[in-house]
Amino acid sequence: MPRNPHSVPGLPTRKQVLDFIQNSEVPAGKREIAKAFGLKGQEKIQLKALLKDMADEGLIDGNRSAFHRMGGVPKVTVLRVIDTDDGEAVAVPDSWQPDDATPPPRLRLIERGPGKARPRSALRKGDRVLARTEETATGWIAYPMKVLPQHAEQVMGVVEIDKSGKGWLAPVDKRERHAPPIADLGGAEHGQLVLAEPAGKSPRSGVKVTAVLGDPLAPRAFSLIAIHKHGIPNRFGEDVLAEGNRAARLPLDPQAREDLRHLPIVAIDPSDARDHDDAIWAAPDGAGGFTALVAIADVSFYVRPGGGLDGEARKRGNSVYFPDRVVPMLPEVLSADVCSLRAGEDRAAMACHLAIDAQGRVTSWRFTRAIVRIQEVIAYEEAQRRIDAGDAADNLTHLWAAWRALAAARESRDPLDLDLPERRVVLDEQGRITQIALRERLDAHRVVEDFMIAANVAAAKALEAKVAPVVYRIHEPPNREKLVALKDYLATFGRKLALGQVITPSIFNRFIKDIADEAEKALIMEAVLRSQTQAYYGPRNAGHFGLALGSYAHFTSTIRRYADLLVHRALVDAYGLEQPRPAADLPPTSGLSDRDRADLGRVSEAISAAERRAMEAERETIDRYVAAWLSARVGEVFDCRVTGVQRFGLFATIMGLGGDGLVPISVLGAERFSHDEKAQALVGDRTGTRFTLGDMLRLRLAEANPLTGALKFEPEDISGSYIEPRGKPLPLKKKGNHLIGRRGRPGNVRHQGRRR
Question: Which of 115, 144, 227, 238 matches a 20 to 30 Å C-alpha distance to 654?
């Protein structure tokens, strides 16, 4: 057997690692790289550090079992077929999990055979294949090696029974267009929401119903759809509940904690908050600055590493919040009772003491385990009303004064400032929709936010001072590809983004502040948001770009985020905050476990993935509620903005509401439209009419499907109007099946294209 050309002792260079990954005929993981370069013992440890550095530098992506060039695809990998239209199979990497703004690369599957390569047409949508990949001048292609067994995953849908009595499973995922036949109804009836699984190896076998979930349009059903679709754990086992009940009975020893019950600490939360894990207090220090306190529920006292309770919280990663319910990370006896900072009740807290100078700089901090008694839980709106009316008590007045100092320091730091609206679903007691509204942004929100940021920074720096493990909250700067796309987009507004400079949040802020037109400002803020990377958790600090902070960790939400619990445990270890073992039937330590201390990267990846899962589930549920709300308004015309362009049509969002829907290319007119992928535009071949990102259109709501959350739009029937992003309407009239501009000429719509 010939010797591997890379097999020479010594740590390889970055270029050698990249070359090996690109040319390897098998998935190139840490083991394969070490073997190829003949690494042993200490060299393998050095290789692990090198691969982490290369990942941090944006050179490679993946995990220890299969690395690939950042933004690329492994040489050999598993692909999932997503489309077989026009006789050509198209696939995406089966495990693609970058940030939401970076879509997975699409690969054309090519079958090698006699004569020449040809499209792989025997594959079906959903097939998983092991394939060799290749990047060409025209895009990615893949050569299938073998078809892999299908996962026996459950699918969710609604039973539809046709006139012949045959059952079909209508999907609840708006991305799924096919309804498989139902081989076994399992007692389900027409219109019921069910779980099903493949009835056989062949797709022709259909599916069999495994569980009946009930009426899909019943109140509180939309969140249930998301829970099952994304596999979110929503039931606690009896052993976990029992351990939670034992932990809830742990006595608080005031002698072992700092007693802060005399301070008028308040919790400021949403009016419908289900738990209260943070509270704040501040007072003047007599020298122009302030002494402040951020008290956070001491969950680490109750949830200890190694127990079943901790294992369940770790698996969930975070609580998931829907309009109609919360899927908590911890059992209710802890999340909504013992750990929740209720007014007038003694509670265990981790206290972050802050010294803030007159310029709003945090000059010192210390962490203690404390016992607190919250004076009052106040809704954001009520706290703001008291401040505005001038009848707030001293504790609120002092909080606002300390916040103004923190806000001044924040302004000098100039973090990314994107004031984008957030949708809020209002339900009545029966779970029925009463309103879809945008959340009002108050100073009260900013007060709490800035105190939480200060405590999070203090936690990260306190752990760094002890050279202790830290689970950082990381937000990396935008990559060059996204910046180039943003530069091209801004150029359509006549604005320049120089890429030769160091990109900071203040550069984006200056763009936004200089825009007087509110419609244009909203467009650019959304474009800047799309250019950002997704934040994640990790043990290696890469800073927080959006907040313009060098060190940042999540410390302030232990009831709902496992990352914060890990930070609390690290503080317990680093600052000797462990307390005597409270009960013989619970794990002894409330610090980090040996497993987490040795490798925080593993759990950081898991909770980052759980966070992405929760975000997608919450977003989809809001979409379903919006579609249900709009289902009674089908036929109405709305002001919409184009948010996506594909070869099959446009994606548009209703202004002020956020409902996203499709404008099929078939309703744009009888002429042929070509897809300009680089410019993100649909261009009429005959008239030159362009539809691009950012365009504002008057669209009629044609369909609203509450089950999938999907909306479908079409232009106004007789006379519509195109509104340029700067708010100037350009009337469009129909002539036959074509939209034409004023004076009867083809409508040349302003180009607002950019790569998404």
Answer: 227
Among 729, 712, 713, 710, CA closest to 721: 729
Q: Is 22 helix (H, G, I), strand (E, B) or coil?
A: helix
Beta bridge pairs of residue 655: none
Residue 507 carries which DSSP code?
A: H
| Percentage with pLDDT > 70 across the chain | 86
Q: Are 46 and 40 a contacting pair, CB within 8 Å?
A: no
Q: What is the pLDDT of residues 448-479, one digit of tens each?
A: 999 999 999 999 999 999 999 999 999 999 98
Q: How confident is the model at residue 64 (pLDDT cuts 50, 70, 90)?
A: low
What token pair was written down for 183?
């081989």
Radius of gyration of the chain (CA): 28
Contact 122, 147 (CB under 8 A): no
Contact between residue 544 and residue 537 where contact means Cβ atoms under 8 Å apart:
no
**Nearest alpha-carbon partner for 159 in 94, 207, 107, 226:** 207
* DSSP-assigned letter for residue 549: B
C-alpha triplet 77, 81, 82: angle, nearest 5°: 130
Q: How far apart are CA 603 and CA 567, in angstroms?
A: 12
Residue 116 predicted with pLDDT over 50: no
**How many angstroms separate the most distant Cα atoms in the chain?**
87
Count other C-beta atoms under 10 Å from residue 595's C-beta.
Answer: 12
- The CA distance from 129 to 77, in Å, is 8
Which position has the token pair 């959006």? 546
Helix/strand/coil percentages in the chain, nearest 5: 30, 30, 40
Quick: pLDDT tens for 252-285: 988 999 999 999 999 999 988 889 999 999 999 9
Q: Provide CB contacts within 8 A for 375, sequence distance 6+.
A: 264, 265, 266, 343, 344, 395
pLDDT above 50: residue 194: yes
Rounded Cα–Cα distance for residues 396 and 380 (Å): 12
Q: Does the pLDDT of residue 566 top 50, yes or no? A: yes
What does residue 281 show for φ and ψ, rounded to 5 degrees? -155, 150
Structural domains of the chain, with CATH = 14-69 (1.10.10), 76-148 (2.40.50), 155-216 (2.40.50), 238-474+539-621 (no CATH), 480-532 (no CATH), 634-744 (2.40.50.140)
* φ, ψ of residue 56 in degrees (nearest 5): -65, -30
Residue 753: CB atoms within 10 A of its CB come to 23
Alpha helices by DSSP H, listed for 532-674, are: 562-574, 594-598, 600-630
Per-residue confidence (pLDDT) for residue 722, from 0 to 100? 41
User: Smallest Cα–Cα separation from 556: which of 296, 753, 347?
Assistant: 296
Residue 725 has pLDDT above 90, yes or no: no
**In which region does residue 306 sit, left (phi positive, over 0), alpha (psi from -120 to 50) or beta (all else)?**
left
Q: Out of 165-169, 622-626, 721-725, which region has the weakest mean confidence (pLDDT)?
A: 721-725
Asked if 309 and 254 count as a contact pair (C-beta separation under 8 A), the reply is: no
User: pTM of the prediction?
Assistant: 0.74
**Residues 656, 638: Cα–Cα separation, whole Å:** 10
User: What gap in Å lies between CA 56 and CA 48, rounded to an integer?
Assistant: 12
Amino acid 211: pLDDT: 84
Contacts of 168 (CB under 8 A, 6+ apart): 159, 160, 161, 162, 179, 180, 181, 182
- Helix (H) or strand (E) holding 187, with range, is none
User: Is 170 or 123 the better-scoring residue by pLDDT?
Assistant: 170
